[in-house]
Amino acid sequence: MKGKNDLKSINRSAVEDSRFGKGCYATIPIREGETICFFTGEETTWKESEIRYIKELDRLDDPFQISETKYLELYEPYIYFNHSCNPNSGFRGENEMIAIRDINPGKEITYDYSTVTWDDRWARIHGAWIMECRCEEENCRKIVGDFLTIPGPQRIEYLKLGVVPNFIIKKIKKLYRKEKNLFSINLENQPRESD
User: Fold this and answer.
1) What was the pLDDT predicted at 54?
2) Which residues of the chain have pLDDT under 50?
3) Which listed residue, 69, 84, 107, 141, has the most CB atoms within 10 A of its CB?
4) What are the DSSP E strand ranges found in 89-133?
5) What pLDDT is attached to residue 2?
6) How many H helices and E strands in the chain?
7) What are the Cα distances from residue 34, in Å, to 29, 88, 150, 157, 174?
8) Architecture of domain 7-182
């Protein structure tokens, strides 16, 4: 995983006060497609994250999912990047944050939290992860949940932009294969309707 000593990209943003408490703001112009940073933190397992949540050491929306079974307990400043339903950045690979449009100095850098979470196991045991959204964007969904809660056209746009983490792309492919097999019918072996 990239990002252990990512000082160059850390200097692209600064933590400042925001309407949500703290946020990360661009300190230099960041062009569409450029890497903003690589999120880093303590790597934990699904079980470790669950224990931290149960012991109230973490909020449910703090761990950053990087695979089906692994999370990052984000270090500063990464914990301060806020959600938006109309984000200006997203994630490529495992933890690489990239700009999906030009970001000017002084502009808050945001991403869609729903693009980086899809945990079926958590949902089965604890219920679906959701949080109230207060981004106030024109397309605000009011509720932020896992990847499948993003409206279809927006999910497709994120995929086209290349800002869907690898583990979610693998899950989509697996789901597609499963549904394709489920709905494929061998018509030759089906009873024929009588005329």
Assistant:
1) 75
2) 4-5, 7-8, 185-193, 195
3) 84
4) 89-92, 96-99, 110-111, 131-132
5) 56
6) 5, 12
7) 10, 11, 24, 18, 30
8) Beta Complex (2.170)
